[in-house]
Design brief:
Structural class: alpha/beta
Order of helices and strands: EHEHEEHEHEEHHHHHEEHHEEHEEHH
Helix content: 25-40%
Distance between the termini: 30 Å
Oligomer: single chain
Number of domains: 2
Number of strands: 13
Strand content: 15-25%
Shape: globular
CATH topology of the largest domain: inorganic pyrophosphatase (n-terminal core)
Strand order of the largest sheet: 1-7-6-5-2-3-4
CATH superfamily of the largest domain: inorganic pyrophosphatase (n-terminal core)
Length: 342
């Protein structure tokens, strides 16, 4: 764990400030939940806080309290730039380096003259003036709860803050089933429920809002599923044409890689999604046990994340990316064999 200048930050926040809070590109439940929770908290403390996102996030997260106040850098650039110009400090949540916001927003942040405060649980963070980094944490939302506790303000957590935090913890722990879920996580979640988070409604809003096309796309993805039993590996592909056929919308492939990981005997799973707009293949990796997909993604696919959940990208074609992926597996046959025992 890295705690850098947190007491100084606490003192700095004793005076009302103009603050910007930023999540990573392609925001997920933890990014949206943590940034909005921190905004609600800072507003209650008398600050003026504005959440900025590099781009859009899925429809199934738009119900989160405060979502309507978020500015998107790709669509509301003028508003974002004005908010940055007025801000006295920027909080960076759920990402470890400025490049995670995308090149356009990164270039803007690189010339920012005031300080950054990082709250994040990803490995190998960049250096910032204020830092709370802990790779053992289940989610950035759990860390925001801890941060509020460090500030001595747990009593300020209301229903809106609790709802935001519960959403991020739930989504980043796979509904509390991942290894990063600890007894402390459950204690935090219990307090959030006591403070107004409606766990059944939150789960339903996130996971029971499937469109017809999304389910058809899932069916296509599962029909593309391949198993490489000799490497305890399974993977899924989705082409641009397949996405178009089922009217793909952002967020429609969220969690699909977990179906591959759920297969008996599988310890390493991946999904390869063709992204024509960015000219890349987007990749999500998952694993069970000791096999680090974070290191695998860093080594070969310009990515990273956590030991058991990471992302990456490839500038090769979809077919070439899969060939590259399969060619790497023989190097890891022993690690995959011993990674996890059912």
């Amino acid at each position: 764990m890295i705690l850098k200048n947190i007491e100084e930050l606490k003192n700095y926040l004793q005076t009302s400030r103009n603050i910007v809070v930023i999540g990573h590109r392609n925001p997920d439940g933890d990014a949206v939940g943590s940034t909005l929770a921190l905004k609600h908290y800072l507003d209650k403390k008398g600050h003026t806080a504005q959440v900025l996102m590099p781009n859009e996030y899925p429809d199934f997260l738009h119900w989160i309290p405060g979502s309507e106040t978020v500015y998107r850098f790709d669509r509301q650039n003028n508003q974002c730039v004005k908010a940055l110009e007025k801000s006295e400090i920027i909080f960076l949540l759920d990402f470890n380096a400025l490049h995670r916001v995308g090149s356009d927003m990164e270039n803007t942040l690189k010339v920012y003259e005031n300080d950054f405060a990082l709250i994040d649980h990803h490995q190998q963070p960049d250096e910032f003036t204020y830092m709370y980094s802990d790779t053992s944490m289940s989610s950035t939302c759990e860390m925001v709860y801890n941060f509020i506790e460090m500030m001595g303000d747990v009593d300020l957590i209301d229903k809106n803050i609790a709802t935001c935090l519960y959403t991020g913890i739930m989504t980043d722990t796979g509904s509390f089933r991942f290894r990063s879920t600890t007894s402390r996580t459950h204690h935090v979640v219990a307090d959030l429920i006591d403070k107004g988070a409606e766990n059944d409604r939150i789960h339903s809003n996130v996971y029971d809002a499937n469109s017809y096309n999304r389910l058809l796309l899932l069916g296509q993805a599962l029909s593309n599923l391949q198993m490489l039993t000799e490497y305890k590996t399974a993977f899924i592909t989705l082409s641009q044409a397949e996405k178009k056929q089922f009217n793909y919308e952002k967020g429609d492939t969220e969690g699909v890689v977990n179906y591959a990981l759920s297969l008996k005997g599988i310890v390493f799973a991946a999904i390869f999604i063709e992204d024509e707009e960015q000219g890349i293949v987007k990749i999500s990796f998952r694993s069970k046990g000791s096999f680090s997909v974070n290191q695998f993604a860093r080594n070969y696919f310009d990515g990273g994340g956590h030991d058991n959940a990471a992302g990456g990208k490839s500038e090769l074609s979809l077919e070439e990316t899969v060939v590259k992926f399969k060619s790497l597996l023989p190097k890891y046959v022993k690690q995959l064999e011993t990674s996890y025992n059912d």
